[in-house]
Amino acid sequence: MIKIISEEFDPFAEVQAYQKQQQALSGKYGATNIFIGTMRDFNEGERVKGMTLEHYPGMTEKQLLAVVQEAERQWSILDVLVIHRVGDVFPDDVLVLVVVWSGHRGGAFDASRFIMETLKSKVPFWKKEILADDQSRWVAKNTDGYL
Amino acid sequence: MIKIISEEFDPFAEVQAYQKQQQALSGKYGATNIFIGTMRDFNEGERVKGMTLEHYPGMTEKQLLAVVQEAERQWSILDVLVIHRVGDVFPDDVLVLVVVWSGHRGGAFDASRFIMETLKSKVPFWKKEILADDQSRWVAKNTDGYL
Amino acid sequence: MTVSIKVRYFASLKELLGRSEDMLEFEQVLSVADVWRQATEAKVMPDNTLAALNMEYVDLACIVADGDEVAFFPPVTGG
Amino acid sequence: MTVSIKVRYFASLKELLGRSEDMLEFEQVLSVADVWRQATEAKVMPDNTLAALNMEYVDLACIVADGDEVAFFPPVTGG
Lengths: 147, 147, 79, 79
Prior knowledge:
heterotetramer; A: alpha+beta; Aldehyde Oxidoreductase, domain 3; 5-stranded antiparallel β-sheet; 4-stranded mixed β-sheet; 3 helices; C: alpha+beta; Ubiquitin-like (UB roll); 5-stranded mixed β-sheet; globular
């Protein structure tokens, strides 16, 4: 399932609620990989007070679904949950949650990472940071995951 | 932190409680990777009713700590929590929880996976499965993560 | 026949142009690049601008049709 | 001088030998492999058996000393 939400959310409550609904997973999922992306209070050497996440309603969901479907084609996985926040966010708020349930750990790790990397390069979301002096700036480019 | 526990545990409650204690993480962790290994109700084509997890008290903790320290040397990560269950377990019980907090996603994914793979090959735990007919068998060898 | 399309702008492009969308009507065959020129009075397109046609990424050379939605936006920075 | 060591067995090895530990006393210089022979009356060591000396993995050729704890166990299967 994919979800775009504009309110603060508890990633752990979301995982638990979703997992409970999916009766088919019971006894079958040996591995769960969860990635949580959280807003930091700094970026490129500057303090960041807050951020606004813009998206393209319609295209965002379409591209996100395509990423999940591609992961399901490439790895033998049981279920996927992706939640992405939009709107105004603050440090320590969760920006993105990716959960992959799988029989074995290899697929869970690989699919989770693939979804995150592809989401960051393909799915239309844009971050605008609000700095300590209330100036704002668009984030120009996502990192490659190692910086 | 590493913990060996013989009672059923809620991985989400553990992550949340630990994260709350670690004030130093606030604002700094952009990425959290969580791996949860859960007992399945089948293995090598047979139904498994339950399992007993044996360990070597003292050596298990020592080796687990060494794995975590090696991950901390190899990647730029902020904190690690590993909890491993021992004793009698049943399908859907959580066997292992690995959590890595990091500034960026690359280190969180890589360190989490490294800890899981190394734990499975180096840390003294042994699984004995109880099959549907109450016969039991030692698990001979861990998979390479892709089977 | 008159072709009418919707053009949408996001993030820094929306701010650059001072608006989030345009409705365009025309008679010729237009590519996505032509749509940009026509809608923006031939403003220079910022480096790395991405284009989508009906919510799928496309090359600027793609031809648009009646009822299409064309979008222009900077590199994405979600996650 | 008498050297005394503790020998521990885990998982399938514990079941094979029917006990979880032995206390061994001896006068010679013994390797970890010698410890196995002496403690088990020279039972064939199962393939893939792992050995630890004071909770660190070691080669069977390592020499043990007074007060050491030697352990034998099958490949680990945690996680």
